[in-house]
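Hello,

I think I submitted the fe (ii) ion job twice by accident. Can you confirm which output corresponds to this input? Input:
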Amino acid sequence: MTEALKLPIIDLSSPDPVSTANSIRQACTEYGFFYLVNPGVEQELVERVFAESSNFFSLPSEEKMKLARKEHRGYTPLYAENLDPTSTSKGDSKESFYIGPLEDITTVVDLNQWPSEEVLTSWRHTMESFYRKVLSAGKKLLSLLALALNEDEDFFEKVGALDKPSAFLRLLHYPGELGSSDEEIYGASAHSDYGMVTLLATDGVQGLQVCRDKFKHPQLWEDVLHVDGAFIVNIGDMMERWTNCLFRSTLHRVMPAGKERYSAAFFLDPNPDCVVKCLESCCSESSPPRFPPIRSGDYLKERLRLTYAS
Ligand SMILES: O=C(O)CCC(=O)C(=O)O
Ligand SMILES: [Fe+2]
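Support: Only one job matched these inputs. Its output is below.
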């Protein structure tokens, strides 16, 4: 039996940054998860993203495999990924599509892969609009996270995290029918996110669960219900390092719902050259840094290598 978790609700449009930052601090220390309302991304756009996502995932497998993941952009088929290295499962029952930074074409080549415009005419435009809007919500949220950590609101800019951030939009599709199997198959097996912060849009089909205490046995998994118009935000491991574990990167997973499910996760991670080093306000003589400083790009590369190793 699982119970639904009542996560805190943070309003990104609140005119009072100080009280919002206080609420964020509490949410991140207690849960590492919260709902973000009024993110400045229209519901109509979110619905179009899911409709276009469905158009892509409905294409024949050979078509999708033409855009197979390269440079961490493009399509990953069912069972390609096992997020829980301790599990022997054949992989997660999800397929996905990654879209990386939308570089200014005058300065850097676009490494993204896009479905043919003849087949999916408005697909790229929809995804680019969504990417830009969520990135802008994420940057605003990071200024509040900085305040929540007693830093200046432009802290993440000053340390170089937001100069060409490593921000990846991942469209996810969990099929409804899985066929029979002896092994336990997860939509997404238990994991914590690797980076700074994740903003997740879900389509209303249940499945996401969190485990607030990973050391407790047996583990208690609680449902995170969908809230219309809200993003589900969670703290990633890199932010946990930055804050010396003050902010929690919480274990989560997606259970098969017996019903098809779409979601879109936006992983907002620092520029690869940004060095993640314990914040002064988060360590002391009695609580020294638990992790050495690390270049963000090196950390993420290793985590991704392990995920796609098998
Ligand atoms: O699809 C979801 O609800 C969660 C996906 C997720 O946790 C991830 O991709 O890291
Ligand atoms: Fe995740």
